[in-house]
């Protein structure tokens, strides 16, 4: 199935020397977007999303409930995974002009195919219950390929059952496996990040005590793992923080469920002795901002001081009294280590009246140095570019 896409490249308005701010078009937003919850237009995206000077944002493609993104330059394609659906899409740029030409379905009948990765001509999919791959090298080959089951014993629970997957520099495939609860003790592979051996495809627990990691990547200089983790619910509007964690090697324990996030102890385990030493986050985000996809930036389009920094998509709170999140943030790194500082990069998906018209999920640099951002509320993938 193919869907033709038409993308408009709108003009951009900058307001002064600071960040470009959403124009005072709240009334227009309410009229055109039904309170900023309906489909945004190409022009309204530029009006509502704040970016640093010199940056522009445009709609790259429409993909319903777009979640995880994996760019594959040799196929002129970006794969799009889904949390609720059963399909995987490909956004195809036939002529490599960084404008999407078609969106096509490449796989169907999968179970929450959120965790996707590409390596050596294979599309890997971490479904809720198993790890499979499909042999390429072309999109047609992948569409027609039967699933090769590599591992079929992932915890088959829908609570935090959407996986995230990323190949490490050692060739292993790392998959995040959430805890099947808000706060509870876990068993087996639950509440971990596992590394699959690329020969035997047997998993080993690389990081434990992880409530629900929803994005992971490896620093380009050190090769070490960094991953987001969502804090527990129902501990208050301002507790616990969401996390960016650093696993410099295997075997670390990150505190869940004794800690709901950061160093905030849970009521359920407050009096229980810690089973081992906890590793605390290198960056503590706001509570309930739902930090999801993370990617390190190695491209050549953005200013030089972005190189080696990380982008994190914050999906936004679902039960906080005053909503928070709904943005993409930039994490500062120096000498391969997080400084602990972060700043808003693409903001404005949450309007001042508390209405969220968009929810960023994942970030993915393209080989020209631009940055894609998925939004499952708008059913869109945006492209952010920079020009001096």
Question: Biggest β-sheet, characterized?
Answer: 5 strands, antiparallel
Distance between the termini: 39 Å
Overall residue-averaged pLDDT value: 91
Give the strand order, joined by hyphens, for the main sheet: 1-6-5-4-3
State which percent range the strand residues make up. 35-45%
Shape type: globular
Structural class: mainly beta
C-alpha Rg (nearest Å):
20 Å
Low-confidence stretches: 4-37
Description:
- With 388 residues, the protein is mainly beta.
- It is built from 3 helices and 28 strands.
- The protein has helices at residues 26-33, 42-48, 139-144, and strands at 2-4, 55-62, 69-72, 77-80, 88-92, 102-107, 115-119, 122-126, 131-135, 148-151, 164-167, 173-177, 192-196, 203-208, 216-218, 225-229, 241-247, 252-253, 259-261, 264-265, 283-287, 291-296, 310-314, 327-334, 337-346, 360-365, 371-375, 380-386.
- The longest helix is centred in the N-terminal third of the chain and has 8 residues, at 26-33.
